[in-house]
Write a structure and sequence with these properties.
Shape: globular
Number of helices: 11
Order of helices and strands: EHEHEHEHEHHEHHEHEHEHE
Structural class: alpha/beta
Distance between the termini: 35 Å
CATH class of the largest domain: Alpha Beta
């Protein structure tokens, strides 16, 4: 049996394309419907109630495409709204917090992990809870980096201002002698080179997108809903704002031509 239904993925903007890239590597036959809520990005400065409202609307849109699995490729939505979404919808759902926490807990050598994310993700304490559930002895240090999302969305990932801002945000974590840093927002891998340069070569960066793709494969395999076609999957991209900028960023990030349609309300 081969289930041709697509995987649905949503994020507040283009950051969730990190998950798309890993799905393409891990599950090349799977069809994907991606929604980026570019009109309302960023989520990380908004209240739990607002993020949950937006997330419900995003899932409702994806459900119209008969998706078999939804990946919440947004750390803020995963930390604030995932459990509510699971109660409201019957489709299987996977967030990015637990996969990232597991990878970080397995990667650290000195038991000192840093987590960077939006204000909402950091305030939720979701990563600390997830890591401590795995190993109570690991120390977790966090930093909110709200300006990273607009830097990534604007494509200012190689400008001097990005290095200046990263230094301000990350130096307090360097003082804590962490050896592993979780990029707790799917936009942050776009700034990976900047972050790595500021943190230095001894600090491992954890991008949860790879782990999310692996878990997605396990879920589909266990439920018998893998797409076993030999043909490469088809991708559909939607945004809530003008698609032109999404297309520009998406093509730069995925290294391929893409089309994007604006979601109709």
């Amino acid at each position: 049996m081969s289930d041709q239904r697509p995987i649905g993925i949503f994020d507040s903007g283009v950051g969730g394309l990190t998950v798309v890239g890993e799905i393409r590597k891990c599950l090349p036959a799977e069809n994907i419907v991606y929604f980026g809520d570019t009109a309302r990005v960023p989520y990380g400065t908004k209240s739990k109630e607002t993020v949950t409202k937006f997330s419900v609307e995003n899932v409702e849109f994806l459900m119209k495409h008969d998706v078999k699995l939804i990946l919440v490729a947004c750390n803020t939505a995963s930390s604030l709204s995932l459990e509510f979404l699971k109660r409201c919808f019957r489709v299987p759902m996977l967030g990015v917090i637990n996969p990232g926490a597991r990878e970080a807990a397995g990667a650290t050598r000195n038991g000192r992990i840093g987590v960077i994310g939006t204000s909402a993700t950091i305030s939720s304490g979701a990563y600390e809870t997830a890591v401590k559930r795995i190993n109570k002895k690991i120390d977790v240090y966090t930093a909110s980096c709200p300006l990273f999302v607009p830097l990534a969305e604007e494509g200012w990932v190689n400008k001097a201002v990005a290095y200046d801002i990263a230094g301000i945000y990350l130096n307090p974590l360097k003082v804590k002698k962490i050896d592993t840093l979780v990029l707790g927002c799917t936009h942050y891998p776009l700034l990976k080179n900047v972050i790595k340069k500021v943190m230095g070569p001894k600090v491992s960066l954890v991008d949860s997108a790879r782990e999310v793709a692996k878990e997605a494969k396990e879920i589909l395999d266990a439920s018998g809903t893998l797409n076993r076609s030999k043909a490469p999957g088809e991708y559909k991209f939607f945004s809530s704002d003008e698609p032109a900028r999404f297309i520009k960023m998406g093509e730069h990030f995925l290294k391929r031509r893409i089309n994007c349609a604006r979601r109709k309300e």
